[in-house]
Amino acid sequence: MPKDKLDLETAFTALTGTPPFPWQQALYERFIADRSDNVPESCNLPTGLGKTSVLAIWLIALATHPEKMPRRLVYVVNRRTVVDQTTTEAEKLKGNAKIAGVPEPAISTLRGQFADNREWSADPSRPAIICGTVDMIGSRLLFSGYGVGFKGKPLHAGFLGQDVLLVHDEAHLEPAFQDLIKAIEAEQKRCNEFGQFRVMELTATSREGANVFKLTPEEAEVPDNPPADGPEPLRTVWKRLKSRKALKFWPEKRDSLAKRIGEIARDKWKNSKRAILIFVRTIADVKAVYDTLTDKKQGVNTDQVQVLTGVQRGLERDRMANPKLTTGCPIFARFLSRPKPDAPDSEQWKTIPKEGTVYLVCTSAGEVGVNISADHMVCDLATLDSMAQRLGRVNRRGEGEAVIDVVYESDPNPKPASPEFEAARWETKKILDGLPTSTWDPEVGRKEASPLTLRRLPVTDDQRRAAFAPPPTILPTTDILFDAWALTTIREPLPGRPPVEPYLHGLPTDWQPPETYVAWRQEVWELRLLDREDRKELAKFAAELLENFPLKPHELLRDTSARVLERLKNLKASPETPVWLVSDGGDVEIATLGEIAAGKKEDLYFKTVLLPPEAGGLSPQGMLDPASTSAADVSEEWFEDKDRMIRLRARVWDDAEPPPGMRRCRPPIDTRPDADESEESPAKRFWHWYERPDKAGEGKATAHRKYELRAHLDDARAVTDAMVARLNLSEPLRSAIVVAAMYHDLGKNRAVWQRSIGNVNVSVPLAKSGGRMEFRELNGYRHELGSIVDVGECEQFKRLDADMQQLVLHLIAAHHGRARPHFPADEAFDLEPRGRDVETLASEIPRRFARLQRKYGRWGLAYLESLVRAADISASQKAEKGGEL
Predict the structure, then answer these.
(1) Residue 202 belongs to domain with CATH number
(2) d(CA 20, CA 41)
(3) Is the residue at 489 inside a domain?
């Protein structure tokens, strides 16, 4: 459909299956308005009114007014489960895009068991929706990237930080991240970076009473008796705003509070055949509630109770929360909306929801964004922001009558961990005590807690702030910090370059203490003998291995550092069990379990404890459990597709055949280097690590077919020509990017490089060989450096002005992650310099990087680098597809 014929109602209905609410129409009109603030800084919208429809509204606005909207929408949430649900919504939009007459967006998810499909980064001219957590998106924006190799960090920073609308859902829960992305937005404006970076927060619970985008007056002014013949979208809004929720407070002694919550939930509802949601603030209380619910004499069966916390390993949690998998949890499925019978097969469930009464016991992991709706709820008293989220998970659609019981401590806390946090909870009770008496539930003390009633409470800004969880100490960012984080070639610790974690979440608090990740990897055990020779060398080697085979979110669980240390102390494994302690920058410290257990919790702050599977410690539910003697290395449980058919990486021993479709990602590992001197041959010795090219890694020099260098450079030029045209880049920048792409791999035309890929006929240089690459043959030679040696003699390069020549030299030098700011000394050489002074060329690289970063900005320069990277990858795929671009 031509964009001038496209209207919101038609396109929105085609995309989502429902007509737009009035606020959705108003937001679209704001997006396309001729005003500098066409993207509002904040949208304050009640839970249950379709905040994720922002994706559809953006896509339609991009189709009708591309000059008004950034090309990529980055949707950030602070819970992994919500990322999956948002991705499902995005995939639905993609499936309906053609009939709606809008561009089909690329969809990528930066978390979980399924790989980032790289659609969003393969063609930066294509509209894209990228979903991820605060950790995944935030770290990438700061050139760090959990689980991303140093080569990929600038690409992620550039494409997430330019030509982007970043939507931060439930922003009030992550004030540090909200401040960070606003600081990045301001810094880009200060540096006059050419690509848009717009930030919009979504929240149902604002910390401030600022002027924000809200419901339209006709939605907010709900009549007491809504007319039955009004517009359906408006009637739906009114129905959800008026959804019946009757709340009552129950006092209880502090020591028995969790047990009382379990008793109320059990005794009131166990024969109701309803879905009951329970919220408590601590893991210890979750256990107490679970034990009460499943009491052998008075309780229900254990198969009627499911626990949802933030301390489960990603793999187990992903499986549990996804009813489209056979491993989905039948109890969790009861709290979700089933797909329509005529929905595509990709949306249909393979998990049958559990019948009868079911209980979902949650910590705050179930509060935010998860699209669950319970029939009734029992919980403890939390802060106002948390209570608002909990209330939004009950009777979301206004189709029932929810009973909510809140149990609070009747006796004072003699030693509160945080007086500020405790004070906020009691301020919350004062506010909720002001709710009017329920008109439909006759029980004495029941109060009306519908979304509309909550919104109409006469609460001042000061009262709201006092009732919210106190914000963490938020660390300010500076231009010096941004500069330091952008030096991605330097992988070692760098003075003045702190870990990014505290900048994403703020400094730890008493109620949100520091956390530590835990994962299990076989290499920790298999390489333990190398520890005896040189711990420092093993640590360096381990960091290199994790660069080749990064830890992925599905491998990790997280918990407070104090609780992790306590449970590690109680593991049944030997104190001599090897452990790798990994910093968030990727550095590795070699230790033993005994040494870790004897240390302090501060030693574990913001780090990853990497255990061998032989250490055990993982419960069947995916939680750290010292009583368990088992644990599995799930690093290879990483797939390209959601049917889990296409594995992206694997490791095999000795002479086993390479996995089909995979190529070696590093030289073989000799795990028994002393075996030649022994009379006995080890059962396993050489370990081969593989990945699927251009999916798990950075793109390799090998392919299934031979691919001549000249053809690759021609293809890269063709890809780039088309890409910069779609991006509407102006001259001379446009020509510079094309020239960089067409000459980026000239340095592969060296005998040493051709020998490394097995090409014996060096007179016909290849870009890809169809065979294995022998890394040792290169002796550290980098073809990017060779390319900038050669490009000076190329005609197209000579035609550019001096400024654009400098840009081309940098883009070529940086297209595999070096030159930010330098090439390491052992890579700064060329055995065939062809009369050029390579030492001088190498010494100019850091100064050039600094000049260009000042000119284009940190994210702007990374974006330009990434255009050449994207063209290189796209052209390389021709070798895999048999000649098709």
Answers:
(1) 3.40.50.300
(2) 21
(3) no
From 467, 500, 530, the end of a domain falls on 467
68 and 7 share a domain?
yes
Band (pLDDT 50/70/90 cuts) for residue 2 is very low
Domain count across the chain = 4
Say yes or no: 737 and 851 in one domain.
Answer: yes
Which pLDDT tens digit goes with each residue over 235-270?
999 999 999 999 999 999 999 999 999 999 999 999
Smallest CA-to-CA distance from 21 within 6, 9, 38 is with 9
pLDDT in tens, 815-843: 999 999 999 999 999 989 988 899 999 99
Asked if residue 134 and residue 169 are part of one domain, the reply reads yes
Strand pairing of 358-362 and 305-308?
parallel
If you search the block for the tokens 């906020």, which residue do you land on?
424
Give the least confident one: 442-456, 633-647, 693-707.
Answer: 693-707
Report how far residue 821's alpha carbon sits from residue 306's, in angstroms, rounded to the nearest whole number. Answer: 50
Q: Assign 224 a pLDDT band (cuts: 50, 70, 90).
A: confident
Are 747 and 672 in the same domain?
no
Domain contains 493: no
Distance of CA 457 to the CA centre of its chain: 36
pTM of the model: 0.89
**Strand, coil or helix: 693:** coil
In terms of residue numbers, what domain contains 138?
3-220
3-class secondary-structure state, position 813: helix
Give the DSSP H/E element, type plus range, for residue 854. Answer: helix 838-856
Contact 861, 730 (CB under 8 A): no
Q: Is residue 55 part of a domain?
A: yes
**Do 161 and 61 belong together in one domain?**
yes
* Cα within 13 Å of Cα(134), Cβ side: 25
Amino acid at position 587, single letter: D
* pLDDT in the model for residue 48: 83
